Amino acid sequence: MVVATLSVALLVENLVPAATAGALALLVGKLDAAGVPNVYQAALAPLTLFGAVLAAGHLATAATGPLTFLAASRIDGRHRARVSEVATSGENYAALERPEVQALIKEAMADRSRGYDCTPSDAAIGQLRWLCGLVGAAAACGVLLGYAWWLIPLVLVPAALNRMVRTRQDFGLSQLWQGATKGELHADVWRRAAVSPGEGKDVRVFGFADWMVERMQQHIREANAPLWSYITRMLFASWKQFLLVSVGLIPAYVIVSLDAARGHSTVAVATAVLAAGWSLFQVLGPNSDMYQIVGGIRVLKAFAELREAIAEPDAETASEGEPVKADDLGSPPSVVFDKVSFSYPGTDRMVLDGLDLEIKPGELLAIVGLNGAGKSTLIKMLSGLYSPTGGEIRVDGVPLGRHSLKHWRTRLSVVFQDFVRYHLSASDNVALGQAGVPRDPALIEAAARDAGFDEVLSRLPQGWDTPLARSRSGGVDLSGGQWQQVVLARALYAVKQGARLLVLDEPTAHLDVRTEFDVFQRLARHRGDTSVVLISHRLSTVRQADRIVLLDHGRIAEAGTHDELIALGGVYAEMFAVQAERFRRGHDDRLEETAV
Ligand SMILES: Nc1ncnc2c1ncn2[C@@H]1O[C@H](COP(=O)(O)OP(=O)(O)OP(=O)(O)O)[C@@H](O)[C@H]1O
């Protein structure tokens, strides 16, 4: 409806120049023919018509602004929602990590605040404007045709050439703007850093504000230099457009004026021709339509490429066969890593190298290892974010690639090491653990209690409704340890809502020893028969596990209970001894593993 009304308004706006020419000619004709006493009477009707044309033009122009805004908001809003859907859909998570895919997302989003100046609505409305402009040009040609057909090529050809020159410039401008936007994104990183409270600490403490601003300006200068020089050249070359206008209009105007002066045509006809000629140039003259069409189409092209990139089943993520639904949601799964190998896309290093590991239903399994041993990677593979490059992961005897990942992820609850701190309320932050089921406030409360978050909660100004970000009105900032409690509650909520495998990747690194001990006591008490995989560098936590595996160079190097591994006297025993010694000396931080 909005687009239809906008089309009508644009059409009227573009027909007004030709209609003005006609109405003006009528007015002049009537005045010319009428004697002095009859002037007012003769002018009344054509003046009313002339006024009506002008009023229609004003109304149309007044309406196009708000209508364009409405149509653009709807078109761009829907487009951005589709980009978000595509970016979050599918199982090709690996593609999201590729820089070129991230660049496509930015371009497809066409966020004006990030320097993108054209959006899909610009392309759509630009085309509408252009089409209406052509109708307006045809109407102006109709007026010219009333005088002499040869006036049409005389005025139209230079006007069309003028348009072509302008369109070529728009293409060049659009391309340079695209290059500038990429550079602007670098500047944007610094621009955001300059005003964000997070980076603000570093900027002040390390005193690199001047360096940062200089860096930002350098990026802006480098990114925009070609664009600025192109625009300067465009300005200097604008005389060409003046010449083109003159080539058509001046001879036409001279011929028509001479004709009228010699009495071969009336002043009214001459007025109509002069006005129509000018209106043709107005309609085909300089405007930003083509630039916006080109820019908007570029955004749509980026979106099409993004869809292809995300949907692309690359070797790492391709699933084979028909999706198989796990039929048993209630019991904990049996998971087997069978000679699993993996290297990240675009890298040669084998992060997992023939890994054999079983996660038995209901067990509390701890995974330990030095930094970079591949522990988090193993969890990402268990979550189906990456697929093995060799070997197989089986869940309840079925390869993970043949499970419905959506379904599998409802059986799984993961606290990632780099968990997300959503700027939402405390209750939203917990409930997002199992967003696909109706929210259950009693389970949210219970999960918070089990995670030890209830004490912090009691101090929040608006309780569960408190936004967990000071940047939001009435919000608060939590400490690292308090956030870990929130995220632990998020994972435990998922368990209470049906997840049967809980994975915790360094869930207590920010907690003090006492809170950590409490949390694990509660976890052990409340996990029921849910399997737990725990990754931790704190071996005092790990020792409570049913079984501990030590990951080294992408394989299991040692496995057993705490007592068995200590008795083995291997790397685990050595790590434990170093940590125990540090603890005795009063340290409670993570093991300095390089010392082992
Ligand atoms: N997205 C990625 N792309 C490429 N390489 C990656 C990526 N993520 C991790 N790596 C590499 O994979 C290796 C294993 O990383 P991973 O995070 O699994 O180790 P980790 O055992 O969890 O380490 P930490 O104890 O420090 O958390 C590292 O060498 C790391 O640099």
Description of the structure:
The chain is α/β, with parallel strands linked by helices and 596 residues long. Among the domains are: 2-311, ABC transporter transmembrane region fold (Up-down Bundle), CATH 1.20.1560.10; 419-499, P-loop containing nucleotide triphosphate hydrolases (Rossmann fold). It has helices at residues 2-33, 39-88, 93-96, 99-109, 120-145, 151-195, 197-206, 209-236, 238-261, 267-284, 289-311, 375-382, 405-410, 426-431, 441-450, 454-459, 480-496, 513-526, 539-542, 562-568, 571-584, and strands at 335-342, 352-359, 364-369, 390-395, 398-399, 412-415, 501-505, 531-535, 547-552, 555-560. The strands form 2 sheets. It has a 6-stranded mixed sheet, with helices on both faces. Strands 2-1-4-5 form a 4-stranded antiparallel sheet, covered by helices on one side. A hairpin with a 2-residue loop joins strand 4 (390-395) and strand 5. The chain binds adenosine-5'-triphosphate (ATP). Adenosine-5'-triphosphate binds at residues 97, 344, 347, 351, 369, 371-377, 417.
List keywords for this structure.
596 residues; alpha/beta; ABC transporter transmembrane region fold; Rossmann fold; 10 strands; 9% strand; elongated; ATP-binding cassette domain-containing protein; ATP-binding
Question: What's the short version?
Answer:
Its main location: membrane. It contains 21 helices and ten strands.
